[in-house]
Design brief:
Length: 396
């Protein structure tokens, strides 16, 4: 795999990793759509059922870098196959869960497996592709999550409505089995394997350049989720018919597919340089929602642009963190690969909380300009990182 073009073997691997992230994303996100069914089944409140979502996110954020550091020396192919097998088993057990505690435990374990598999998928995509094509490969792998939201989650919800929430996990178990077969067939044997101590791994997190790069996607996602978390009440305020909201949200997810494609284009050349201005455009798009939502059609167009801007940062920041680790701590690229997914979860939690604070202060639409301010902060941080990169190149 050393040519400058993507061969059939490259594409089979990319599609395998995309299928894997699609399965992982469906399993992670579908829980929101079936939460009330689960609460009824276990005879708990919706608020208590909501801890299934927060526990997953918290576990994902904390456990992923820890496990990636501890297992950096494991053979990647065998380790990934083992984790996919574990994912299948955990989802199968979810089908027969008889209590909230059992189900919560299974979801926490699934969060650990999910975080590590996502990180490993990003490393494999990065190191097996020609350098010029890494952006395209990573954008496809991230695209699995977009497809999970657009296709996997609605499918899982429909199945839950017809056959019960347990049936949704039969779906994720079967999809996991497909991902295992594809991975067994197409994951290469010769993947990097670095032996390093936990101290070597976590020394990466003490590097100010890595910390700066980590908060770029955290703020980028935070900007979007300050607004997106409250998109339904915004749509209600625009006068959107109740039966059209699910269709609008589907359209939002569909547009994000193109955002993912553009993310690969941005990452192909001078990614951080381009990203400086992407965040400024995002700030404008979010802020103008304050006015455009007074008109239904203009508001929908602006929401579409918000979706288009939402994940342009993913591919660039993922590769940037891996490349920075290659410069400052080559033995910790595995940990670096786990930081973007963690940063996205931090950003989602931060943005949702910030939006909630603003919302409860009075005017819902204030979340739009607050989201814009967060996007400007992401741009400033990117400008600073770019400045340090150029300064380092000149001194080299």
């Amino acid at each position: 795999m050393h040519s400058t073009e993507l061969s059939k073997q490259h594409w089979l691997l990319i599609l395998t990793l995309t299928l894997l992230t699609f399965v992982l994303g469906t399993s992670e996100f579908v829980i929101v759509g079936i939460l009330t069914d689960i609460s009824s089944s276990f005879q708990i409140t919706n608020a208590k059922a909501g801890t299934l979502v927060s526990a997953f996110a918290i576990t994902f954020a904390i456990a992923t870098p820890l496990v990636m550091s501890a297992t950096s020396h494991f053979p990647k192919r065998n380790w990934m196959l083992f984790l996919i097998g574990t994912f299948i088993a955990l989802n199968a057990l979810c089908v027969i869960s008889t209590s909230y505690i059992m189900f919560l435990t299974l979801r926490i374990l699934t969060a650990i497996v999910t975080g590590v598999l996502i990180s490993l998928a990003m490393i494999v995509a990065s190191e097996t592709m020609p350098i010029e094509k890494r952006g395209i490969a990573i954008s496809f792998v991230f695209g699995g999550f977009t497809l999970a939201n657009v296709v996997g989650v609605p499918l899982g919800i429909v199945i839950a409505e017809r056959y019960g929430w347990n049936a949704t996990f039969i779906l994720t178990t079967l999809l996991g089995s497909l991902a295992f077969l594809a991975s067994f067939s197409f994951l290469p044997n010769k993947l990097s394997q670095v032996r390093s101590s936990i101290l070597d791994q976590f020394s990466l997190l003490a590097n100010p350049r890595i910390l700066m790069a980590f908060f770029i996607p955290a703020l980028g996602f935070g900007a979007t989720y300050t607004v997106f978390t409250y998109l339904v009440p915004i749509l209600n305020g625009m006068g959107a018919p109740e039966n059209s909201i699910s269709l609008i949200l589907f359209g939002y997810g569909f547009i994000s597919i193109f955002s993912n494609i553009l993310a690969g284009k941005i990452a192909s050349h001078n990614a951080i340089g381009r990203l400086r201005f992407v965040f400024l455009v995002q700030a404008i798009v979010l802020t103008t929602l304050f006015w455009t939502t007074n008109h239904f059609i203009l508001g929908l167009v602006n929401i579409g642009l918000m979706s288009l801007m939402a994940i342009l940062l993913t591919t660039s920041t993922q590769l940037y963190l891996i490349d920075l680790a290659g410069i400052y701590q080559p033995k910790a690229t595995g940990l670096a690969a786990s930081l973007m997914p963690v940063a996205s979860n931090v950003g989602i939690a931060f943005g949702s909380a910030l939006g909630g604070i603003v919302y409860h202060q009075g005017n819902l639409m204030n979340v739009t300009w607050v989201g814009g301010v967060v996007a400007v902060c992401a741009s400033l941080l990117t400008f600073l990182s770019y400045h340090f990169d150029q300064k380092q190149k000149k001194s080299a």
